[in-house]
Design goal:
Elements (H helix, E strand, L loop, with lengths): L3 E2 L18 E5 L21 H11 L4 E4 L4 H7 L6 E4 L4 E4 L2 E4 L6 H15 L5 E5 L2 E5 L7 H14 L3 E6 L2 E6 L4 H10 L6 E6 L5 H9 L3 E5 L8 E3 L2 H14 L1
Parallel strand pairs: 2-3, 2-11, 3-4, 11-12, 12-13
Antiparallel strand pairs: 1-13, 4-5, 5-6, 7-8, 8-10, 9-10
Length: about 260
């Protein structure tokens, strides 16, 4: 296991780098951070001990542990039915905070359905592209057809130009169309301003979609950790989700 500052990887992790859990607000991505990525969204394996680990983290932070994911809230509930904390889904377009569920207003608008219809139509004409339909966005996955990622990017960019109020979001072998103003960074900022005020933020993610929340954590005097390869605003790195879960366990033991 290697935990490292950017551009430098010491031989062993140091949980002492992390704030005391009683003073921290912890923001965790799911896919690629807590669990390994899979060929399809439903193909992931959730380790048997992950639910208990997250419950302990939630208890030790006094409830200031939140999942911040690109998945729907209902998907996270399916994979982690016992998680007691706050959940932000669809990159911030859905959120359940303190037991109260909210969804972006675009979910009921005609423009969203028009965008979804056009994206689905393109995917249906290109075998191998997997469509993930979310309440406030649509995702095209290219792990089974990587050669289609570039032409899809051009097509989806044109679609965004044609429909005001939407943006194209890049993820690992995926493209997502969702409303403007939706981001994990905005979700983390809202939680730090409201529910978790006064705490030191710690954010962990693996993808470009996680950069906004990691930048938000750093801007608030906190820490950010990147799981896997790639340039990042994060100052800490680990190689795999299993190493990150081990770090969370060590953090719990230290405090």
């Amino acid at each position: 296991m290697t935990l490292a500052a950017r551009h430098k990887r010491p031989a062993s992790p140091d949980p002492l780098l992390l704030p005391a859990l009683g003073e921290a607000a912890v923001f965790l991505d799911f896919d690629g951070t807590l669990v390994d990525l899979a060929e399809t969204p439903d193909g992931i394996h959730v380790p048997a001990d992950l639910s208990a680990l997250l419950t302990r983290l939630h208890e030790r932070t006094g409830g200031a542990t939140a999942l911040i994911s690109g998945r729907k809230v209902s998907d996270l509930d399916r994979f982690l039915p016992d998680f007691p904390g706050d959940v932000v889904g669809s990159h911030g377009a859905e959120r359940r905070i303190g037991g109260r569920f909210e969804r972006h207003s675009a979910a009921d608008g005609p423009e969203l359905e028009a965008v979804k219809t056009a994206a689905r139509g393109w995917a249906e004409a290109h075998p191998g592209v997997l469509v993930e339909d979310k309440p406030v966005s649509i995702v095209l996955h290219f792990r089974q057809a990587p050669e289609l990622l570039k032409p899809a990017e051009e097509e989806m960019a044109a679609l965004v130009t044609a429909h005001e109020g939407f943006v194209l979001h890049h993820a690992k072998m995926a493209l997502e169309l969702h409303p403007e103003g939706v981001s994990k960074g905005a979700a983390v900022a809202a939680l730090l301003d409201e529910t978790f005020a006064g705490r030191t933020p710690f954010a962990a993610g693996d993808d470009r979609t996680d950069e906004a929340m990691m930048e938000e954590a750093i801007s608030r005097g906190g820490l950010a950790l990147k799981v896997g390869d790639g340039d990042s605003a994060a100052t800490l790195y680990l190689d795999t989700p299993s190493e990150f879960r081990a770090l969370l366990g060590a953090w719990l033991e230290r405090t």
